[in-house]
Each structure stands twice: as C-alpha cells, then as structure tokens.
C-alpha cells in the first residue's frame, strides 16, 4: 500500500511556487472579469460559433475551430468542427469562469450548447445541451453568456409570451442547473422608464455594478431586415435603454435613455477607471457610462460612428486591454473603424478599413496585435448575393494599419455563417490526476 | 483586513502604486469601491449542492465532509500549507483571519459560522502538517475552524470536480510537470443546509461584502420555519 504513489505531482512538490491563475480584466479583452487563464500571448485557436445554412455542408449550426498559431503547420486552417444537429440561429457564446467550457446559444430555438474546450482545445466536444431556459424563465433568445464564479448570467433577447423585446437575465450554475431569473425593469427606475429589453451584460466588480443593454425581440430579429426597416411599427420595437444593476442584490438601480439599440458593452477595468462604452446600432453613436465627480452614474453619447444618415449599423466593438482604443465594425458598409479612446469623453476615429461586404463581430488579442473579423449578423439580416460573403478574416495591427494575415471562406468550406469568436490556447499545465500508484481513500 | 496585512500583501504583489502603466490583466488585490449592501436587504442565490467524502482532520480523525457543511454557515476554501503566492492561499488566510476576528465580536454570529479549509495536496499536507498550520494561524476556542486533508488524490478529485475547483500542474517546454500548481482562488459560502450560496473568487474577496453575506444567511436561518431548520441537521 505504501509503495503506491500519487503521481502527478507535482502535488507532492514542496516548493512554494503555487500561483493563482490571472484574472482577465477586460475578447480576450472583453471577457468577464471572473474568467481565469487570460491568454496574454499568442492564441492557438479561434473558435467560431457558426449558423448552419440549408444545403451547405450538413446544414447544422456548429462550433468551428481554426488554428491561429502562425508557427503551426495548419495555421489559418479549419482543424475541427462540431455540429449540434440542427439550426437554431447560433449567435453568441461565453466561457465558464474556469475557461473549461464554452456555452453557446441559439436565438431561435433557445437551446444552449456546452462545449468542453478545456480538455483538448483543438478538438472541442459537445458535452451538454440545456433546453429548459424557456420553461424555467419564460425568456427566449439566449444571447450573452457572462461568467460569475461557479455560474453564468445569461442575457436574453425576448420572451415566449409575445416574442417581443421584454425579457430578462437567467442564472445557471456551471453544471447546467437553473439558479435564478431577473426580469429587466419595465417600470421607472431612478425616474427613467425601463423598456424591459435586453442584450449584453458587463460587470465591474470593484464598483459592484452590472450594466445591461437592449436590442429587440424575436419578432424582429427573426424577420428579414428589409421587412423590419420598412415596417414603422416594427421599428418602434427596439431597445432604447441601458440599465445599471447592483450586482450583489441583482436589483436595477438606474435606467439610462440610450436610443437606437445599444449593443455590446465594454468596461475599462484598469485600476482607477470608472467607465464603460457601448455603441448604438440604429443611431450610430458611441455612448459613455461614467461616474461623475459626485459618484453618480451618467450616460451620454460621445462620438458618431460613420454617417448616421446612411445607417452604417454599428455592431460589435472590442476595447483594447489598456482601454485606449476601440474597434467598431459597421455592418452595412463593411467597415472596421478604430477609435482613439485616450479621452473617453471624446473618442476620435483615427483609422478605418473596408474589410468585407458585410462585417459583424470583431475580436482582438490581449496585446492588441491581432484582430479577427467575422461576417454574419443574423441569418435573416445578412445581405443577399453578391454581398453575402461569409468569412473569418484575420489581420495584424501595428498601431497604424491592418494587414491581412489569413482568411477562411465559410461558404467555400461549406460551414455556414460565422458569428461569435472566442480564443483558447494549448494547455500550459496538466490536470491533477490519479495514476496507478495512487492509494484509494 | 488589517492595515499591516494590506501593506504586506500589496508589497508582495508589487501593488503599492496604481498607475496608468499597470497591466489590467495582472491579478491584483480586490478593490471595494462601494458600500456593501446592508445585510438582509438581498437574497443570495442557491448555486449548487455540496458533495460528501471521508476526509481527515488535523488530529488524524476521519470526518465526513457533509457533516461539516451542514448545521452552520460555512466558508470553505481549498489551500496548500506551503502556498506562497501573495494573492493565493496566503491572501485567503489573511482575509479569513481578519473575518474571524470581526465575527468574534458578535458571539451569536460566531456560534453560527465555521471555516473549513481543505488541502489540495494530500501527499504533503498530512494531519500533523495541518495541525502545525492551524497553530500558525492561531486556534481560537470560540470559533470552529477545521483543517482537512484527503487520504489520496483519488478521494480529493471528485470533491474538486463537484465544487468546480480547478487545479492543474504547470508543464515545461517538454511537457513535463514543473513545481508550479495553478488553481483559481475560490471561497465557497455554504448555508446550514449544505447549499452553496456565494462563491468569492479573487475579485470578490471583499471583506465587508463577505461579512454582510454571513449576516444575511444568519438572518435567513433565524426566519426559517422549524421544518426547514430540521433540514439543516447533518446527514
């Protein structure tokens, strides 16, 4: 019995060099501040949650893995793909706090797929499908997956009652069990009327605050964009608020009027910073949410993106790790913009590039040197031929210009419409494990 | 947390000065730039249940983990006695020590709260090692603070898996294990029924919030109907 040993380890090592995984504070720069194992160097893989297209490949939504390491023999190539066996409007995804699992949602079928990306990042496995979101909450359209310790907050877009925009937040533990729900405010909070709509979530733990934004219900996002914009009634049903929540109590404390569907929210989480930004899709503005000198939170528009009269449709944004720069994609004109955020009260566009016929998501590496762009917005909102390009394009950024590094044609590869991206890296550590020498307790 | 503790930890972590060049990706001591919500004004989520296992305490006596996760409000964390990361186990140790001092100022609360620390290294952290570690912290007869270890990694792993406590061994360029272990710092707040009600990772280790959370659960227990209270008995 005594000759049997615990192997790995290294756990028996007597050195004192244990360390706690670093805490991510800001795609890589846009993750929950509770996510561990921040990739500060070269990411090895980009995982792309991809909408299936009927008649293209297997037609299913899928998680596509691309080799992003320039030193790899398969650099820039699709190395793995996991289909989920149906089309449910694949959209966004998010890591659990330990970064071992990636939760990905379907806006149409409200299913949530859990992929193991921690065991073998090059080959994610579908390990669980959560189907009780609507049963437990009445919400549909799981959009944002935001990690808290041991659980995720899920920001939804709609509800099962009328498919409108009134919705809420759902909390599930990392095992996939429902924990709690919180309706978006539909009454006045701080004197401002809540509209009940939801979209993104972003948390600042030092301030004990959570910000949420607002988009539209299923009746709009699952309808052709051309029809929606021509329907005055439908155009009334877009979110026009952001909500500040007390994170501990999960109670809304302030509603801000932010007209034109504020989408992604990014906190500047460097020490001493007390602000976040968002971009409005329909009014083409950058909004700043910031504490004033008296500690009161205020929201104001601080910059214009492109020519709002042409409705460029700002979509995803990505803030740099030091919060000094912001990438903004505008879908309609296929442009990627860079704003200098040194003075967040006065962002200035210093660079832009036409990166595709249609562009939606943008993600950058922690060091800001690599920028990834995908094309698809929603299956019924993407452009028709010949502008229905479906791609992931990777660029290098030297602070002055984007230089293409590689691209994947998702139509040619028979994959579908690429949407949200997340990075992983090969494990720099091995799991604690029992070997044949381990005594059984 | 005492001023000395803060100064010591900040110095260890090189955090004495926050400036524009600070890399926001570097783990730092948690900041609390708000007034913690008053105890009893909010509800803590019921996050997950807790597992059972047969462990050893610092006297070498076998203890069922489940019995130590019921009947009182418990703060549980995983640690190593020789962990030296200033923002790892030592940080939790200081945080919990200060919290204990604060709890002891309210005798009724002190009687309702216990700490449980479970070693992640059964090979090194024997009961006698735990006993020495507990002595370093300072045993206080007015407060229940348990130090536990497993007989083997095989006993420990299911507990870690159930709690969602990741641990990994750093490897070198050749893929061999090094002497560095990684684990995400977490402290679990568990109610008298054995349900996890909050999880504090590094960014969340805010003493005022933790204290108010303990009080919130104590107030909840005081309101609990008798039937529910029975459910708090150890299995």
Most extensive interface between two protein chains, with residue counts: A-B, 71 and 70 residues
- For this structure, the CATH topology of chain B is Glutaredoxin
Stretches with pLDDT under 50, minimum 5 residues of chain B: 1-21, 227-231
Low-confidence runs of chain A: 1-26, 436-441
What best-fitting shape of chain A do the alpha-carbon axes yield?
Answer: globular
Query: Major sheet of chain B: order of its strands?
Result: 1-10-9-4-5-6-2-3
What's the gyration radius of chain A in Å?
Answer: 21 Å
CATH superfamily grouping of chain B: Glutaredoxin
CATH architecture heading of chain B: 3-Layer(aba) Sandwich
CATH class of the domain at 22-298 and 307-313 and 406-424 in chain A: Mainly Beta
Report the helical percentage of chain B. 25-40%
Percent of residues in helices of chain A comes to under 10%
Q: Write down the overall geometry of chain B.
A: globular
First-to-last CA distance of chain A: 11 Å
Structural class of chain A: mainly beta
User: C-alpha Rg of chain B, in Å?
Assistant: 18 Å
Q: What is the number of beta strands of chain A? A: 32
Number of strands of chain B: 10
Description:
The complex is a heterodimer of chains A (441) and B (235). Chain A has 441 residues and is mostly beta strands. Helices cover 4% and strands 42% of the residues of chain A. Chain A has a domain of 303 residues: Methylamine Dehydrogenase, Chain H, CATH 2.130.10. Chain A is built from four helices and 32 strands. In chain A, the strands form eight sheets. In chain A, strands 4-3-2-31 form a four-stranded antiparallel beta sheet, with no helix packed on it. Chain A has a four-stranded antiparallel beta sheet with strand order 5-6-7-8, with no helix packed on it. The relative contact order of chain A is 0.15. The N terminus and C terminus of chain A are likely disordered. Chain B is of the alpha+beta class. Chain B has a single domain, classed as Glutaredoxin (3-Layer(aba) Sandwich), CATH 3.40.30. In chain B, strand 5, helix 4 and strand 6 form a beta-alpha-beta unit. The N terminus of chain B is likely disordered. At the A-B interface, strand 1 and strand 32 of A face helix 5, strand 7, strand 8 and strand 10 of B.
């Amino acid at each position: 019995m005594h000759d049997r040993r615990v192997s790995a380890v290294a756990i028996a090592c007597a050195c004192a060099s244990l360390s706690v995984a670093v805490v991510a504070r800001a795609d890589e720069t846009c993750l929950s501040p509770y996510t561990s194992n921040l990739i500060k160097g070269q990411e090895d893989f980009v995982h792309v949650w991809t909408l299936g297209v009927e008649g293209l490949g297997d037609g299913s939504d899928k998680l596509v893995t691309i080799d992003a390491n320039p030193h790899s023999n398969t650099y820039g190539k699709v190395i793995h793909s996991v289909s989920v066996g149906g089309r449910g409007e694949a959209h966004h995804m998010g890591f659990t706090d330990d970064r071992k699992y990636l939760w990905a949602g379907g806006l149409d079928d409200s299913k949530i797929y859990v992929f193991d990306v921690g065991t073998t990042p090059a080959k994610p496995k579908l390990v669980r499908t959560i189907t009780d979101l609507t049963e437990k909450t009445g919400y549909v359209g799981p959009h944002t997956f935001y990690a808290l310790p041991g659980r995720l907050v899920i920001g939804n877009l709609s509800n099962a009652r009328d498919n409108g925009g009134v919705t809420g937040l759902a909390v599930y533990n990392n095992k996939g069990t429902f924990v709690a729900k919180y309706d978006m405010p539909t009454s006045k909070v701080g004197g401002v009327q809540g509209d009940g709509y939801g979209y993104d979530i972003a948390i600042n733990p030092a301030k004990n605050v959570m910000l949420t934004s607002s988009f539209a219900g299923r009746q709009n996002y699952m309808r052709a964009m051309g029809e929606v914009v021509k329907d005055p009634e439908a155009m009334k049903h877009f979110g026009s608020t952001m909500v500040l929540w007390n994170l501990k109590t999960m109670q809304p404390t302030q509603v801000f009027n932010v007209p034109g569907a504020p989408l992604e929210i990014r906190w500047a989480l460097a020490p001493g910073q007390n602000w976040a930004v968002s971009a409005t899709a329909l009014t083409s503005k950058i909004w700043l949410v910031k504490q004033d000198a008296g500690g009161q939170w205020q929201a104001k528009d601080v910059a214009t993106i492109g020519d709002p009269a042409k409705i460029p449709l700002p979509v995803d944004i990505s803030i740099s790790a030091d919060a000094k720069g912001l990438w903004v994609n505008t879908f309609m004109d296929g442009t990627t913009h860079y704003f200098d955020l040194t003075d967040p009260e006065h962002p200035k566009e210093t660079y832009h590039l036409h990166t595709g016929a249609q562009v939606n998501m943008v993600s950058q590496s922690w060091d800001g040197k690599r920028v990834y762009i995908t094309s698809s917005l929603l299956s019924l909102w993407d452009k028709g031929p010949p502008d229905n390009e479906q791609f992931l394009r990777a660029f290098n950024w030297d602070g002055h210009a984007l230089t293409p590094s590689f691209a994947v044609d998702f139509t040619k590869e028979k994959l579908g419409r690429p949407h949200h991206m997340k990075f992983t890296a090969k494990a720099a550590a091995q799991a604690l494990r029992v070997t044949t020498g381990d005594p059984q307790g | 947390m005492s001023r000395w503790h803060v100064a010591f930890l900040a110095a260890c972590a090189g955090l004495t000065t926050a400036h524009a060049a600070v890399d926001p990706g570097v783990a730092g001591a948690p900041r609390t730039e708000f007034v913690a919500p008053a105890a009893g004004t909010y509800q803590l989520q019921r996050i997950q249940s807790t597992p059972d296992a047969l462990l050893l305490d610092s006297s070498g006596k076998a203890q069922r983990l489940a019995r130590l996760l019921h009947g009182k409000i418990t703060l549980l964390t995983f640690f190593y006695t020789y962990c030296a990361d200033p923002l790892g186990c030592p940080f939790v140790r200081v945080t919990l020590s200060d919290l204990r001092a604060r709890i002891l100022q309210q005798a009724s609360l002190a009687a309702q709260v216990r700490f449980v620390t479970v070693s992640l290294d059964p090979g090194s952290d024997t009961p006698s090692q735990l006993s020495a570690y507990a002595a370093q912290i300072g045993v206080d007869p007015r407060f229940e603070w348990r130090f536990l270890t497993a007989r083997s990694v095989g006993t420990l792993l299911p507990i870690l898996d159930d709690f969602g406590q990741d641990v990994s061994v750093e490897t070198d360029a050749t893929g061999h294990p090094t002497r560095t272990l990684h684990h995400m710092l977490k402290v679990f707040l568990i109610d008298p029924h054995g349900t996890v009600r909050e999880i504090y990772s590094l960014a969340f280790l805010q003493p005022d919030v933790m204290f108010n959370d303990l009080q919130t659960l104590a107030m909840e227990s005081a309101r609990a109907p008798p039937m529910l209270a029975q459910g708090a008995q150890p299995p």
